[in-house]
Amino acid sequence: MLTTSKSSQTAYPAVDTSELAIVVSECSVRYRLPTERISTMKEQVIRQITRRTVKYNEFWALRKVNLQIRRGEAVALVGRNGAGKSTLLKCIAKVQRPTTGRIWVRGSMAPIIELGAGFHPELTGRENIYLNGAMLGFSHAEMERKVDSIIEFSELANFIESPLRTYSSGMHARLGFAVAAEADPDVLIIDEVLSVGDEAFQRKCMERMRRFRQRGTTILYVTHALDSIADLCDHAAWIDGGRLRYYGDAQRVVGMFRDSMEHDADLAETQRMQVVRVPAKKSR
Amino acid sequence: MRQTVWGGNNTVQSASMPVYDTGTIRSQSLFEFRELIRYRFLVSNLVARDLKVRYKRSVLGFIWVMLSPLLTMGVLVIVFSNFFGRFQLAHYPVYLLCGILIFTLFAQASVAAMSNLSGNGSVLRRMYVPPSVFVASAIGSALINLLFSIVPFFALAFINGVRPTVMWVFIIVPCLETALFSFGVGLIVAPLMVFFNDTYEIYTVLLTVLNYLTPVFYPTSILPKWVQQVENYNPLFLFIQSARDAVIYNQFSNPGMLIGAAGSAIGAFIIGWLFFAQMEGKFAYHF
Description:
The complex is a heterodimer of chains A (284) and B (287).
Chain A: E1 20-34, H1 41-50, E2 56-70, E3 74-78, H2 85-92, E4 100-106, E5 109-112, H3 125-135, H4 140-154, H5 169-182, E6 187-191, H6 199-215, E7 218-222, H7 227-232, E8 235-240, E9 243-249, H8 250-283
Parallel strand pairs in A: 3-7, 3-8, 5-6, 6-7
Antiparallel strand pairs in A: 1-2, 1-4, 8-9
Chain B: H1 2-7, H2 12-15, E1 19-21, H3 28-38, H4 40-56, H5 63-85, H6 92-119, H7 121-126, H8 132-159, H9 172-195, H10 199-213, H11 225-231, H12 235-247, H13 255-279, H14 283-286
């Protein structure tokens, strides 16, 4: 369904990359949603024989997004549900290839798209640290050096030899964040995950993110907690309907996004009231 | 000229950083191959995880791996010994176990490749790892299982009166060929499983058919002449035969067979790899 553009050799705007960490140029992602889902090979073969083709509904999750993020910058992505934030994040994190356009990222990446993806319930906390580290591309020796500080950061020293199925979801999240945090990446990608865990741990995460900033780590941050943005990020990008609507100073973009949401909420409110009024008339 | 703009201007510090650039990926197969090498530690980690999870909470533990092919062999020996004895098949138990081990390696590896890849969809949807690691780790686990059962195999051969020779070491070659062949087949069936739920059922039926078509528990000589000819194009028969020749008959199979075995293993791997690289871009949309 995804056809990577072969025209990627065509000219791209020339960019001075020496100061950049992430370049997204003319990036589009198309989803093709089949009107009927074929999930078995039997069906597929029957369809081939009877020559009935499946129709697709096309849906562009991203349309020609351009974005340049400098090294050491912290950028927030804001937008409504389904605006395409996560799709953009996944493209940057290598999880997905854009349908057209180009993604360029310099430096090692640690995505925290969902904490503890790839944890195994039967393995102990310690074994899971090694496994998760390997999924981030680290060798056993590298993880050996990091494992103590990961355990310390996660505050799970007492439980680290018990299987993960005995952990609470908060402990799960702590371990996941600790591994990604100690991975010490050049680019950190965070998708709405810090809402888990208690307040103390959240504060600790924010503290760690500030340390990352001081160290010059590039941070890309998706969240619906708009208040935490001003605290952490200097720039923000507002994605709306798959397009980049505004990019600039974090406070200003968040402010504009807030205003639009309030406006939309007002609009929705009036619409809802109108809908209610219609049957009332009829009954009279 | 674009090249100088994108590639140049690097400070010393940033020059050492890895760069991910979708614009420069010309061949997905090569890209995926490099990534698999880079993530080799993940493969070994996944193999270790597989083994730990499977045997952690079972009483028999690793002994089960050795026991299970022996039990199958025991049953088949009881049932078929008299029957195939008429064909003057020397060391029938060894002959049988050899076939079972190689075929089990293939069946286990390719089926595990399927379930491993689709079972880890949740990982592939959320973070980047080269998807081929899940196929590779399935093959790795099956190879380790084989390693455990090869000890009782040699013990049985010795008890059965086969004289141990240096040729026994050669069994490594057909085993590795089988693994590579399974890797290739796994790389084809695993993506199909992602797209079609019934791949598993269809494939296991095909495996049973293949099991009967391959001389695993019967001597080749009971087959009609033309079928014997066809068997020379059955890669699994070639692997099994070269293993039997080495262990039981203390000889190399004829050169044609050896070349055929190596060629089909490498060929299956290349075809599987190209297919997998072609399909993997669609995974993110299907999990």
